[in-house]
Design a protein that fits this description.
12 helices
């Protein structure tokens, strides 16, 4: 369904402030300038045991001006979206660049990009979640909660929904002008069982956050909410009574609901070029996958094909144009198991063109609000399925002794994105090609290249799911971005399994 750009956003003096800011920047001697006007609406709804606990709405609006003056960045922002303020910000951004110039050892140059004159892009969704009344949302979540609480083995139910409507206008001195709108939401349901001794166990839905509208929660076919919730109580009881895993090496069949997070941490962050070059280390460290290994690093087995994109429908990082006016695209990151590409913004692309063999950004600049400068951020980074690959049942059937991993939970990874361990929501023992019940206290541990090198088979398109997160952190001051990671189910041979209870001294 096609949607119009939010009328309250279009009512802002977008073109007027852009023209004023860009001219003021030129007059002050800037070689490049761009302006963003943004309006972000967020809404969180939370219920505890079928009772509303929190309903929070917020709107953030503002404008930001970024310039390059004498080879140095300058930036200024404000919540006042007026022509007068736009002019002031442009001059302030140039002053910031002048002040910073003595500290800048590497002059800023931007990779070239075609001009996109007055283009509009709207993400793919049917029902704007903000067009649905909070009361209607609460009624749905109350019904979900009561359905679960009706079971004797479920003691508590928490439901949380996070929703965002993002409007963004961009213009620069080259002549590009874009107006965009996208929605995203993340629903989660968590059931808790408390035993007589005071211990407890939880089960959380594995439905991913998505770039969809309210239809995602009301039966558009993208997720079977009724089916997942119907099995919750029995899965929770089975998890609580499961045997503790015996540590050792196991073959793993990993469901997309778990594997997306391993992709995020061990591939997504590791192939951000600013991290690989050592420019960025906040939150996630730098990277073992340094550019001198491009084209030679064996990231994984020959069946490993990972792409970056900002174009896949309903992806959380999907947008038409990034925050530097670059039209978004898709590209290879790992092909046939070898590192072949990185995620780039315009400066990283220009600065490293000879090394990378490309001289264009792949559209990875993003700022999470008008108060922040754009930084290089993660695209949708996804493991590709095999065109004629097996089903999940067929993957399991090929395992004599192993574990089937479902759902994400906790993780740990070092500052080079190399040594890691991951847990999950549910673990099923595989014996003789069949699931024989749940296990508990499971974590898988490996190095990045060892783990992806052990991947023997990727599932077919029928197993592919687009997972992701709404809260990927980066930069100082801190910024948060939403990103998706698609993947099929996959088979890994001989992976080290820890018993988390024993490792924790319990």
């Amino acid at each position: 369904m096609s949607h119009e750009i939010e009328s309250s956003f279009l009512a802002l003096p977008l073109r007027e402030v852009a023209a004023a800011a860009l001219q003021a920047a030129r007059d002050a001697g800037a070689s490049h300038a761009d302006i963003r006007v943004e309006q972000l609406r967020g809404q969180d709804v939370s219920l505890r045991d079928a009772r509303l606990e929190n309903l929070h709405d917020d709107v953030t609006a503002g404008l930001a001006v970024r310039v390059v003056h004498d080879g140095t960045w300058g930036f200024a922002s404000s919540t006042d979206v007026t022509v007068e303020e736009a002019v002031r910000l442009a001059r302030e951004a140039v002053d910031v660049a002048r002040t910073s110039r003595p500290l800048n050892a590497e002059p800023v140059e931007l990779a070239p990009e075609p001009v996109y004159d007055d283009v509009t892009w709207v993400s793919a969704y049917d029902v704007d979640p903000f067009a649905v009344s909070p009361a209607e949302k609460v009624v749905l979540f109350e019904e979900w909660s009561r359905r679960l609480l009706a079971h004797d083995e479920v003691d508590h139910v928490d439901v949380h929904l996070q929703q965002v409507l993002e409007n963004k206008f961009y213009a620069d001195t080259a002549g590009t002008m874009t107006t965009q709108q996208r929605v995203r939401l993340q629903p989660q349901v968590t059931a808790t069982r408390v035993d007589r001794g005071g211990g407890f166990e939880t089960m959380r839905t594995i439905a991913p956050p998505v770039g969809r509208g309210w239809e995602y929660l009301t039966g558009d076919g993208a997720w079977d909410w009724d089916g997942e919730l119907a099995h919750f109580p029995e899965l929770l009881v089975e998890k609580a009574k499961a045997s503790s895993v015996e540590p050792g090496r196991y073959d793993l069949v990993i469901d997309p609901s778990n594997l997306w997070l391993t992709i995020h941490e061990s591939i997504g962050h590791a192939t951000e070029l600013d991290r690989a070059l050592g420019y960025e280390a906040a939150y996630a460290g730098t990277s073992f996958a340094t550019p001198d290994q491009l084209g030679t690093l064996r990231y994984g087995s020959g069946v490993m094909h990972v792409v970056g994109d900002r174009v896949t429908p309903h992806g959380l990082s999907t947008v038409g144009y990034d925050d530097e006016g670059v039209q978004t695209q898709q590209w290879d990151i790992v092909r046939d198991g070898t590192l072949v590409g990185y995620q780039l913004d315009r400066r990283m692309a220009r600065q490293n063109a000879a090394l990378l063999g490309v001289d264009r950004s792949n559209g990875c600049a993003y700022a999470d609000s008008p108060m922040h400068v754009p930084v290089q951020r993660m695209a949708n980074v996804s493991l590709q399925p095999a065109a004629d690959g097996p089903s999940t049942d067929e993957l399991i059937a090929g395992v004599e002794r192993g574990i089937y991993v479902v759902g994400d939970k906790s993780w740990s990874i070092d500052m080079q994105r190399y040594n890691f361990q991951f847990t999950g929501q549910r673990f099923y023992e595989i014996r003789g090609g069949r699931l024989v019940g749940q296990l508990r206290d499971v974590a898988y541990q490996a190095t990045t290249t060892e783990f992806w090198g052990s991947m023997e088979t990727v599932g077919g398109p029928q197993t592919y799911v687009l997972g992701g997160a709404m809260n990927c952190g980066k930069a100082q001051p801190s910024q948060v971005a939403a990103v998706s990671h698609g993947c099929p189910a996959a088979l890994f041979r001989g992976v080290s399994i820890l018993n988390t209870a024993r490792e924790g001294g319990r």
